[in-house]
Automatic annotation (TrEMBL):
It comes from the Bacteria. GO terms for molecular function: ATP binding; ATP hydrolysis activity. It comes from Sulfurimonas crateris. It holds the Pfam family ParA. PANTHER family: CELLULOSE BIOSYNTHESIS PROTEIN BCSQ-RELATED, SEPTUM SITE-DETERMINING PROTEIN MIND HOMOLOG, CHLOROPLASTIC-RELATED. This is MinD/ParA family protein.
Amino acid sequence: MIGHQAQKLEELVSSTAAKKSKKTRFIAVTSGKGGVGKSTISSNLAYVLSQNGLNVGIFDADIGLANLDVMFNVKIKKNILHVLKGEASVSDILIPITRNLILIPGESGDEILKYSDKALFERFMSEAEILDKLDVMIIDTGAGIGDHIKMFIDAADDVIVVTVPDPAAITDAYATIKTIATFRDDINLIMNQVKSEKEAIAVYEKIKKVALANIGEKLNIKLLGKINSDIKVSSSVKQRALFSVMHPGSIVHKDILSIANAINKNLERDVLVMPSESGLSGLFKRLVKHF
């Protein structure tokens, strides 16, 4: 039954593909364990990218601990599941954060097909076209490597694993990298809460060495950047504010800017994203293939 539904949805999604023209880069941000600052990095990265003139969407796919509303200090009443159930329109759930930044409240991937009525899904795909002008969509996934998290990671163009220089966190990050490597060989790493760039590189090299030895030489694992340990980050979170807004001249802001610049270079070399896969509807086109 579910397979039949998925086939119908995939046919429907494919039929809408010809209308798209904008390229959207999908970036999944994940971690081996919670509490390493994944959502803090996702939200600040989305903001900085939007300030660089890009149209950015940030999709909250951390279902168990969805907290981007806290990060952006906004209230969420409905999410994508309400749209698929016919209880809201796409425009109803979108939350503008800044001029070029939109928060998209998400729902677990394995819930999608429970409400896969063709008429509702067709309306959803049509309404989702309002997000087709997005240059980047940050997908803030849950920690760990559950099935729906793997689905988002596989659908993304770029994957970022966030970890901190703590033995337990490093072990969990490696386990996550090992799992991701079973279905893709390109992984980016962000070292959070480090004392210096030297420490970030040292931990990265340790993870890379073990990964290449045990997973294989085909794995391409890169250090995308680091975020220094700074009280400004935790104090901003407590105030329900972004550290990039609260402390624009800080080292941590410069760190996130550096990461954003690295992503901008990837956008300029954008050869992975098909023009037919745009915005929110483009993401769902990829996700449907997993059912």
